[in-house]
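Sequence design from tokenized structure. All designs in this work follow the same two-part layout: the structure record, then the generated sequence. An example of the structure record is given first.
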């Protein structure tokens, strides 16, 4: 590949997942539909403009009809939503008013549509009816669809990209990222996104270098620009000069060698220098990742994020479809355990097909168990599939986002309903599986002892625990500097959870990304934790560190660490104390 004559630009972002890739940019412009301009249209051309609008509506409608036809008819609520959209395409408020605005204001169709849809949106939002307010989302989606045909920016399907490229996008949702075909896409960069956002978790699972939170990448990059993505340091280089390219080609080779070395050792046991055995498990999002998890030396699945099955299908799966996937997974891992976490949608894992609710603060809204308790039929379907799969292997059941004791009591009631249904239907299942809750909301930490009365284990979800305790949106790049796993407040909460689990004699795992960063391991081991689950690519790195770690030293050090005041002091202390065993310097200049 040749070097561009254009000037080299270096941008700093947030490391999404480590590794280096070099290649051509491929812009996925999802924002195109939102940057329309207003221009006047002469009297003579108004009919053309109206016709252009009608054509766009027709195409969008046909497209939508195809989607409906291709779907399972047994979709209940979801099919209703899609059928509502079908009606909205020709709705007087949107369709009729846009045509009227084109001819009255003598403006282009895009601007008229934008003006009308905004007005309708505001009008709906003002109505004091939750159902009608929720329809705002439908209007936005329908008008975006029409707009995409007007501006010629139909959605690029990530799964259809067929060149070896680096994706450049303003934003990629976790569902988008999970569509990436590894043999085609080398890496990706986005303007938005923060540390340990779900998009970065998917990138790590795919082992695809990525830099997020670049802010202005899409403004600076044109399609086919030559890029270097350094996911380890969070650097993006646009049109590199010859020296830079040479340096990064060397680094890329070194990184691959380093990774291969780690993987060679991945099957050695995770035993510390002083003989303490720790459990390293893997977090997965899709059943297909399970092979990689085993290859990386994970001894079980400590977190199966089930929501991605739902996001990919773009509808709610049936009990049998879920059973089929869960069974495949547990049979493959047997006799090792698989912790299946119930649906954790909304927050940043929202999918318009699954929910039509527009929330001002999605992360604080109807997410995870809150959504499941509101939508009992969906919850029961999943629980039944989990109990049925438990007849084929070693399953643990994990409930996300528990914030009070009432919720876990309610969950147990729904579990009983699922069990009764299975008994009535005479299905084969196993209800005697350990039940755990995620400790990922500060309130859950504070009432950990009470929660422990109702469950068999805790799983600390640091990704959200950091988000909610530091009050920072984990996908917002502007506050990424406050996303501090080693903040004294976070460490205190981990200790409180550990103490509660010890006192109540229940198991404790950490499944947040914090467990996958070698820098944090001496502290976590020092605090007494022995069970960790992480993205599978981190297992070999963490394992290597553990094999060089002395738990007595870690315990002594943690006492000093817990007295330090701020994250920088803690960071410096760890660097100094463990410089000989931390994996830095293996892949640097
Ligand atoms: C967490 O919050 O730490 C966690 C493991 O769950 P998720 O990243 O899916 O929110
Ligand atoms: Mg979470």
């Amino acid at each position: 590949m040749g070097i561009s004559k254009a000037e080299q630009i270096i941008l700093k972002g947030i490391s999404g997942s480590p590794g280096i890739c070099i290649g051509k940019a491929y812009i996925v412009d999802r924002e195109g539909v939102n940057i329309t301009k207003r221009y006047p249209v002469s009297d003579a051309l108004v009919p053309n403009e109206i016709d252009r609008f009608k054509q766009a509506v027709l195409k969008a409608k046909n497209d939508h009809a195809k989607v409906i036809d291709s779907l399972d008819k047994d979709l209940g609520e979801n099919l209703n939503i899609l059928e509502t959209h079908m009606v909205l395409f020709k709705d007087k408020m949107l369709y009729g008013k846009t045509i009227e605005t084109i001819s009255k204001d003598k403006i282009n169709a895009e601007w008229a549509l934008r003006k009308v849809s905004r007005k309708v949106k505001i009008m709906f939002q003002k109505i004091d009816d939750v159902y009608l307010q929720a329809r705002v989302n439908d209007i936005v989606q329908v008008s975006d669809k029409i707009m995409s045909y007007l501006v010629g920016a139909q959605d690029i399907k990530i799964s259809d990209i067929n060149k070896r490229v680096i994706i450049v996008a303003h934003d990629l949702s976790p569902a988008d990222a999970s569509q990436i075909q590894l043999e085609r896409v080398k890496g990706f960069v986005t303007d938005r996104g923060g540390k340990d956002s779900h998009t970065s978790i998917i990138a790590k699972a795919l082992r695809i270098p990525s830099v997020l939170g670049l802010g202005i990448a899409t403004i600076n990059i044109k399609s086919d620009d030559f890029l270097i993505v350094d996911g380890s340091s969070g650097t993006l280089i646009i049109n590199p000069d010859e020296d830079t390219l040479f340096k990064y080609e060397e680094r890329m080779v070194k990184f691959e060698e380093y990774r291969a070395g780690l993987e060679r050792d991945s099957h050695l046991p995770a035993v510390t220098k002083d003989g303490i055995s720790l459990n390293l498990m893997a977090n997965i999002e899709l059943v297909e990742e399970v092979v990689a998890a085993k290859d990386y030396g994970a001894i079980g699945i400590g977190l199966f994020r089930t929501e991605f099955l739902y996001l990919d299908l773009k509808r709610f799966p049936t009990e049998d479809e879920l059973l089929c996937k869960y069974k495949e997974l547990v049979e493959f891992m047997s006799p090792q355990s698989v912790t299946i976490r119930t649906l954790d949608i909304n927050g940043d894992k929202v999918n318009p097909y699954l929910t039509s609710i527009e929330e001002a603060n999605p992360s604080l809204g109807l997410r995870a168990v809150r959504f499941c308790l509101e939508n009992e039929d969906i919850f029961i379907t999943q629980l039944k599939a989990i109990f049925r799969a438990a007849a084929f292997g070693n399953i643990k059941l994990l409930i996300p986002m528990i914030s009070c004791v009432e919720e876990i009591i309610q969950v147990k009631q729904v579990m009983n309903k699922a069990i009764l249904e299975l008994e009535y239907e005479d299905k084969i299942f196993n209800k005697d599986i350990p039940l755990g809750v995620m400790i990922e909301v500060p309130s859950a930490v504070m009432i950990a002892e009470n929660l422990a009365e109702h469950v068999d284990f805790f799983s600390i979800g640091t990704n959200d625990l950091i988000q909610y305790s530091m009050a920072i949106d984990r996908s917002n790049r502007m506050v990424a500097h406050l996303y501090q796993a080693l903040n004294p407040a976070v460490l205190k909460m981990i200790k409180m959870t550990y103490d509660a689990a010890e006192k109540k004699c229940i198991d404790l795992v950490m499944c947040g990304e914090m467990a996958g960063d070698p820098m944090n391991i001496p502290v976590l081991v020092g605090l007494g934790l022995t069970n960790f689950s992480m993205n599978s690519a981190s297992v070999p790195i963490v394992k290597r560190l553990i094999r060089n770690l002395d738990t007595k030293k870690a315990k002594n050090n943690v006492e000093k660490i817990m007295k330090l005041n701020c994250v920088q002091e803690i960071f410096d202390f760890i660097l100094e104390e463990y410089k000989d065993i931390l994996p830095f310097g293996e892949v640097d200049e």
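Residues 585-589 have pLDDT under 50 and may be disordered. We note this feature because it recurs in several other targets discussed in the main text.
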